[in-house]
Input
Amino acid sequence: MARAQETEAWRQLQAHQTQLSTSGTRISDLFAQDPQRVATLSFDCGNILVDLSKQLLTPDTLDLLLQLARTMRLTQAIADLCSGEQVNNTEQRPALHMALRGLNVPARPDIGKDVSAALAKMDALVSAVHAGTWTGYTGDRICDVVNIGIGGSDLGPAMVTRALQSHHQGSIRSHFVSNVDPAHLHKCLAQLRPETTLFVLASKSFTTLETMQNADLARRWLLSKADNEALAKTHLHKHFVAVSTNKKAAVEFGIREDNIFPMWDWVGGRFSLWSAIGLPIAMAVGMAQFRELLDGAASVDQHFMETPLASNVPVLMGLLAVWYRNFWDAGSHVTLPYAQDLELFPGFLQQLEMESLGKSVDRDGRTVEVSTGPVIWGSAGTNGQHSFHQLLHQGTEFVPADFIAIAQPAVADNQQQHRHLLANCFSQSRALMEGKTRQQAKAELLAAGEDPARAEVLAPHKAVPGNRPSTTLLLDDLSPRNLGSLIAIYEHKVFVQSAIWNINAFDQWGVEIGKQLSKPAFDALNGDDAADRSLDPSSRALIHHCLNKPGDPS
Ligand code: F6P
Output
């Protein structure tokens, strides 16, 4: 396959970018040139209104990006993804997260049955916990569910559970513990009673250090805090269930085989919230709403598979990401959900995007030679306006932004306050686009009665360059269905970028090195001299400092 940067479309995009920047093309002017711009560049995807009109995008840009997509055989890549080809070539696996929300994959007739069975098993547990028929070792009903997992086995379920707070049903309290820092689990356990707590050990591999350490600690806590340790020990299965592909290791830990929920090698961790990894979500909102979440994602899957590239939202968002990364040198991308309930969304996206696109070798093992995934960051608006938006407006970095807004408030009786939230969201994207010239700044100062000499001095400080692009995704409300759609849009957008760069979006070999190197460091911390000598001088010095060892370690 040709590399993207060797294609004619790439060369033309470079020339086009030069032309746009030298001519000083401004997004605001594009509205004047085309009165239909908003209509042309607004799309409906899974019932989400996606407004691309504030993008640095002319009809020529769009044509060239689509030409690039065709040259890089994007349509074929999407078909390969959906038909169960081994798109994860380094691990020789398909990536079939879409099958978890109903995609039929004729090449894998086993999958549909397995998915339905897993959903039925989740349903049984959720119903039993909600009904109080699944009890702890004393016969008391379960009040708290603690998910122990990390990465994809934490971020997705935690984000969705938090986002759907106003849809929680029943009285189950959800907790998420991920960090190997024991302070994380201790803080959580301090509020809990062993007899009413259910732990979900979520680990696709069931080998992840953090999760295994926390699982052990949770088991020790439960037994040590139980008023009848012997009874608790015989009924431990009532307090621990697992989600994993590694049944053997889960059974060895002490989980009953019946209490192990399946995962499959064809689902990547960061794409797994739709599987039984979503058990804490289902515990919080009930199975009916969990299925709504799946349906929302499925409607975007359909859009992604069936909509022509020119109006396919994940395709357009992915191509725009390539446009800014490779032609405008944007090293980061900010996501700004104007909804406190989406406060964990940027963190979830960090794993989804940066684990998927943080690659510098292509699918054929060649160095990519163009920039791939940008740094993803952000936080819930309006908070960022009072911290990092200064850099977005006047800093030297060019940072494309995604705004996510919810038309209806989560809390119905706060309509006016919610309107302040929306007003801020829409005016931030406008401010990024329009900016403010020196002349405008000076005129404002003068109109406010400022001394002319002082106005002249202040004007450059108050000017805002503008012309900074953004997408706005507008949801009617933060329902399970709409949230499912939102997440699926980003999943597919990431895949589009990976197809253009010809990188594997579904492996994450880079995380292995840290896992490998933590072993000798741990041994050195435990006094193993050979391990200590194997370390670099800086690590040794730090470890010696922790151990209070005198002398120069080098
Ligand atoms: O360390 C990265 C990672 O491999 C992620 O891709 C994954 O989501 C996470 O660890 C957790 O893995 P597991 O579910 O196997 O514990």
In short: The two ends are 49 Å apart (CA to CA). The chain has 23 helices and eleven strands. The domain at 100-291 is CATH 3.40.50.10490 (Rossmann fold). The longest helix spans residues 109-131.
